[in-house]
Amino acid sequence: MSILKRSYEKTISYLMSQFPCVVVLGARQVGKSTLIKRLLPRAPYFDLEREMDFERVNADPALLFQETDRPLLIDEAQLSSNLFNALRVEIDRCRHQRGQFLLTGSSSPQLLKKVSETLAGRVAIVELNSFVWQEAMQKPTSHFYEFLYNPGKFDQLTVNYSKTEILDLCLFGGYPEPFLRKQDSKFFELWMENYYKTYVERDVRALFPTLKLDAYKRFVRMLAYSSGEIINASNYARSLDVSQPTIKNYLDIAEGTFLWRKLNPYDRNVQKRVVKMPKGYIRDSGLINYMLRINTKDNLKGHPAFGRIWEVFIIEQIIRNLQISLERVEYYFYRTHNQTEIDLIIEGNFGLLPIEIKSGSTTKLSSLRGMQNFIKEHQCKFGVVVNNGDEVCKLTENIYQVPAVYL
Prior knowledge:
Layout: H1 8-16, E1 21-25, H2 32-39, E2 45-47, H3 51-59, H4 61-67, E3 72-75, H5 83-93, E4 101-105, H6 108-118, E5 123-127, H7 133-137, H8 163-172, H9 176-180, H10 185-207, H11 213-225, E6 229-230, H12 233-240, H13 244-256, E7 260-265, E8 279-282, H14 285-291, H15 297-302, H16 306-324, E9 330-335, E10 341-348, E11 351-357, H17 369-378, E12 383-386, E13 393-394, E14 399-401
Parallel strand pairs: 1-4, 1-5, 2-3, 3-4, 7-9, 11-12, 12-14
Antiparallel strand pairs: 6-8, 7-8, 9-10, 10-11, 13-14
Helix pairs in contact: 8-14, 12-13
């Protein structure tokens, strides 16, 4: 697994200095185990997917806590039914002591339930994703995210990547192992195929043993083909010959296992009729491309879905970096019934920010009318267009162009 430095290291270290326990959630193979062992290389470590470690932790966790030093690392913590009650007792015994436990988990629904029931107020949760761009390329984080409080500084941004590097990242995605071996196209495809099979046949089967796996497999492929589109549950239900409640359950599973991200519609204080159905996408662009059989940069640029793949690729980069910085944000999309659309709406301490994403190098002013109206109606300070241009500039009085190479 990757030995590259992760931007999340600083985030997790800070949380460990503030809370007795930190839980790192994320999909399989995003580097959780590697990260926690890199952060605390001398700490006792237990991987609950190893039978010996599982038996020692699950049999008598209270005894384990007495016998081991702090901090203590526990990987795939959701597998132990006895761990969390014992953790609560142990943390309360020395509540003032920070950084006692660092846990990881791959199955959000199961683990979050245990955390919320037993460790409320004692734990910080951080979500680890596959590589963001600066991690993959080992470059500094863009100042774009801190400049959201003062967009007048956007002209101080510098180019972080070449357009070729960005397209490479979009094609291969950010799972550490296949990205680091991306020159071997056969390995990349085999890894993705095995990852997809393992996700459905092991992880989902274990979490939801009564689920019809064949239908769910087809559903995941449909999600890949419709990434970036409005989710119409009735269309999915007809295609898979299942009920709409079943589709909603599938969506919850895909979101809860970190495969898919849902964007809710922004419908507050709006003066127009807006679409109320959610929008969503497979989180990793490499996995989307694998499922769509896109395997070269030329194929990617020429594919009919390139615009939507590019859009979700940019959205993930922005959301993940705000999460890394511990910025408290909510994110949405906006679409009216007359087809006015804004790809991403972010609400944070910096205000309400509309972001439009284009795959081209230039943006026509006529295409910004919807954003200009949204800015006026919601009294936003500014809006941003992310495209494939060459320079940061003002497109209008309050709309900035920030090309992807600056992110």
